[in-house]
Amino acid sequence: MARTARPPVIAVMGHIDHGKSSLLDYIRKANIVAGEAGGITQHVAAYIALHDNRPVTFLDTPGHEAFKALRTRGAAAADIAILVVAADEGVMPQTLDALAAITESGIPYIVAITKIDKNNADVDRAKMSLVEHGIYIEGMGGDVAYALVSSKTGEGIPELLDLVLLASDLAELSGDREASATGFVLESTQDPKRGASATLIVKDGTLTLDGFVVAGDAYAPIRFIEDFRGKRVERAGPSEPARVSGFSSLPAAGSLFTIAKNKKEAEALAAENAKASAPLPERAATAEGVAELPLIVKADVAGSVDAIAHELKKITNERAAIRIIASGVGNVSENDVNTAHASGATIIAFNAGTDSIARDRAERESVVILPFSIIYELSEKVAELLNARAPAVAEDKELGRAKVLKAFSSSAKKQVLGARYLSGTLSLGDRMKLVREGVEIARGSITNLQQARADVKEIKVEGDFGIEVESREGATYGDEIVAFAVAHV
Predict the structure, then answer these.
(1) Do residue 267 and residue 214 come from a single domain?
(2) Which pTM value belongs to this model?
(3) Where does a domain end: 361, 389, 417?
(4) Alpha-carbon span 313 to 360, nearest angstrom
(5) Is pLDDT of 465 > 70?
(6) Which of 173, 207, 235 is the last residue of a domain?
(7) Does residue 295 carry a pLDDT above 60?
(8) What pLDDT, on a 0 to 100 scale, did the predictor assign at position 38?
(9) Close Cβ partners of 57 (under 8 Å, ≥ 6 residues apart)
(10) Is residue 249 domain-shared with residue 301, that is, in the same domain?
(11) 415 pLDDT exceeds 80?
(12) Whole-number Å distance between alpha carbons of 208 and 238
């Protein structure tokens, strides 16, 4: 079949709050920022815009580091990337993560230096920041095209889109509209009415109202197709986003999809895919002495579940470990609450509600459900829970220190010593340890203190004094007496 030119699929990538969503908002003249918590895009979406009467598909990929997996999928599904860098901040950690995803996918990219309208914008500093991190733009020793843009005024955005179309022409993107559709699952969700649904990006061929979509071990009959606006359409061609519902299970975001002619063929292909991606064995039990924080993770979309798991792996404590005992897409259900109650788990609900029955049961069973809409707030809270779960460890807190000058007398357990004050406070009844050349040799307690031949309760000033200690090991000249208390941390 003859291949014809197809529209480019563009991934807009970069650091959190560097203006990706605002840029797309201006391009498609529709406000999506208001619908995102804290102005942060937290799952991938696809939109089609026109420039010079040519369609361009944009993928809005999250900028937060936690959504690295989603960002990587976005780059894999895209033909060209726009790397967004704010003029007031320059290159940031997630900028480099985004660049790594772009580089790994092998696609060309264009730099958009955003927020040039801000009072503290410094375009020259932003350019230098790019060069310092190995991003050699045109005019700065390299050939990476760039545009200076403002999503408030629209300045530079036509030029940016011109660069996108130029890169598309140079890439000579093509597709066979007569072929069976293939592409990527961009996102999957559990719809209360339609069941498991997925947003697909068709990379080749045409998706029609015929056959079954197979993605990984999930499949769905193509009963209806929705475009990016939610409008029902009869077909979706190369580079177009499409929504299909009725999957047998949630397809993994980022997985490839193909078309099967009938249900039998779809089931066989899904079973074959399932064998190829068999789950890894469960990890070993937590090490002895390490407490566990069991969690159940529920989120609005499958990509968010993956991203949360990625974020939680970074939260560590030497004495406690996170264990995700269950995860899924959709509202918190009664079954989730039952599982949490049986395992002592806390339920994390990310952009997900709680069924009324589940809420009532959670209250009766004292199951904690923590709702979140911003990823870094979720990670901060889980870190707090993990630290609280860690068992206390006994630590010796030094109170005072003295040097042994002479041993006067000793019995089986007690000895009278002459000592010189070094630091802190040594008090009657304190626990003490004998230290010889930096190594502890014995422990005991202070049973008597004398200064100027008078009994005292504590020694806290410089000078020589007498001390009686209860210890199994005899002290000699040069040993140190360290008074301490046991603190639990």
Answers:
(1) yes
(2) 0.65
(3) 389
(4) 31
(5) yes
(6) 173
(7) yes
(8) 54
(9) 7, 8, 9, 10, 46, 47, 48, 201, 239, 240, 241
(10) no
(11) yes
(12) 12
